[in-house]
Write a structure and sequence with these properties.
heterodimer; A: 115 residues; five-stranded antiparallel β-sheet; 3 helices; globular; B: alpha+beta; elongated
Chain lengths: 115, 134
């Protein structure tokens, strides 16, 4: 298991050994731009703790509620909270998960957001 | 809320194919599925959107746990599924009562794209067979 974490690209982004365009961080999560955005806004919200998938969140762990609060905050910061956005988590290969470190996607259509 | 479709489903005034319920949420099959398995998880308490969850409310953690249970019950936890919340109109939200989608099965969008590519390749082959270039 430790080797899986050693190889984890999101753990390296959280440590800062791989660069990313961060938009938010706190003691529980880090949020940054998806390297290959599928929409004008495409942010990933990643817990600092290495949890492989949504299925692996321990029973008493409140991380999902916290991720939800951070998603709403980022949506407000980008001015898409009222116009609309999608919040989704892909789970395992058949669900489209590529990096096996739990992460939530926030995507929105708003244009010229980076400028 | 009297005019809310999901409140009426929760109150059992409108029928739905319920797959799970507890004191905080009700889960049922989407009436217009966009995937072979398409289940909605809806909090009993009427909250319009994800933006409106009060600070300190852990409903999303509970919805996540229920999503995992439903995925296990339907044999898709390991093969994979998508957990989606659409927020407001531009995010594709249609019913303004917070709900999470669980979707699994074939990706029909990708199948249509692949079928389109297949047809265009077959068409070009047919044309070049009928009218070979000299």
């Amino acid at each position: 298991m430790s080797s899986a974490i050693d190889e984890c690209i999101f753990c390296k982004i959280i440590e800062g050994t791989i660069p990313s365009e961060k938009v938010y961080e706190d003691e529980l999560v880090v949020a940054f731009w998806d390297a290959n955005p599928v929409r004008p806004v495409h942010i990933l919200i990643v817990p600092r703790e290495h949890i492989s998938t949504l299925n692996d969140v321990p029973a008493e762990n409140q991380i999902l509620a916290h991720i939800g609060q951070v998603v709403v905050k980022i949506a407000r910061d980008f001015g898409v909270a009222d116009s609309g956005y999608r919040f989704f988590i892909n789970v395992n290969k058949g669900g489209g998960q590529v990096v096996f470190h739990l992460h939530a996607h926030l995507i929105a259509k708003k244009e010229d957001v980076r400028s | 809320m009297a005019d809310c479709l999901f409140c009426n489903i929760i109150a059992e005034k409108i029928p739905a194919r319920t797959v799970y319920e507890d004191e905080r949420v009700v889960a049922f099959h989407d009436a217009y599925p966009s995937a072979p398995l398409h289940i909605l998880i809806v909090p009993r308490h009427h909250v319009p959107t994800l933006n409106d969850i009060p600070d300190g409310d852990d409903i999303l953690t509970h919805i996540g746990k229920v999503a995992r249970k439903i995925a296990e019950d339907h044999g898709i936890a390991e093969s994979g599924y998508r957990f989606v919340i659409n927020v407001n109109k531009g995010g594709g939200q249609v019913i303004f009562h917070l709900h999470a989608h669980i979707m699994a099965g074939n990706d029909f969008g990708m199948k249509i794209i692949l079928a389109g590519i297949g047809v265009s390749i077959a068409w070009r082959k047919l044309v070049s067979w009928i009218r070979p270039r000299s």
